[in-house]
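Many introductory courses stop at the sequence. We go one step further.
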Amino acid sequence: MAESNGKRGLLERLHEGPVICAEGYLFELERRGYLQAGAFVPEVVLEEPEVVKQLHREFLRAGSDVMEAFTYYAHREKLRLIGREADLEPLNREALRLAKEVAAEGDALVAGNICNTNIYEPGDAKVEATVRAMFEEQVGWAMEAGVDFFVAETLPYVGEAELALDVIKQTGLPSVVTFAIHRDGLFRDGPTPAEGAKRIADLGADVVGLNCARGPDTMLPLLKTICDAVDCYVAALPVPYRTSEAEPTFQSLQDPHCDCLPTDRPFPIALDGLTCNRYEIAQFTHRALEIGVRYFGVCCGAGPHHIRAMAEALGRTPPASRYSPDMSKHYSLGSDPSFRQQDTEYRDKL
């Protein structure tokens, strides 16, 4: 459906072809020194809003069709953890404002965002009521800001996803619901990814799929089961890390080449040596498109170069493609006839 302001809506765009939604704000802004690993609360939204705005802009230039408000982990439980619960509403409203401002610089949609609460307990009615209330207040602020659709993401329980979807459905806006599947390959309340995705799709989600936790190689097989199980659009937003069958999530990765880690695993801030390059992200994009994925992105660890690689793999030329690599221009590895012979012949000694 088209939006009242003339923008093509999410479902209209998905009907026409793939949609890209850049993520990865938490890890990227932690790397840049604007939020703390561990809590991962997006305090930067209030403290350095121009930094958030610039990262939105970089993702827009790289080819993202969506500016997702940076409200991941901007919920009541996370802010309580760092003693800033009083900043809950200002943080959410500011994050929404920043996303809207940058979206207006291009033909981008604005997504409201809710996520895993880390307090959900299956079958606990009191906790479920608390989780619902947390979702409702964030969704309410997003509606007042005029978002185009909602993302509910990184949900490890089907029951928590059902609550998130139910709250979103009250708005009448399109919904994207994505799940985090950990080492055992199941939702934490039991179903397989395909079973859980079908439940959420049957309840009316417009898009279902996977985000976070798994890298390209270990997300793809689960995505295939979901594509086969549902009739709605399917989303894929892996983390850009080289997970494997033995270490299927980025939390479980080990780095045998590093003996100086302060903990028993490189997650979350020493994953640099295990990062996917842009060609691996392009390869994943091709493979996911072939099995039926239509909503794309890259989650924790993504940089704008990953999003550009994804956009180019989908046949696009975003503004940032002006600076896509052209190694023919490299003084030694390149082929320009103006290069000195002694330099081009030296390439094998570099």
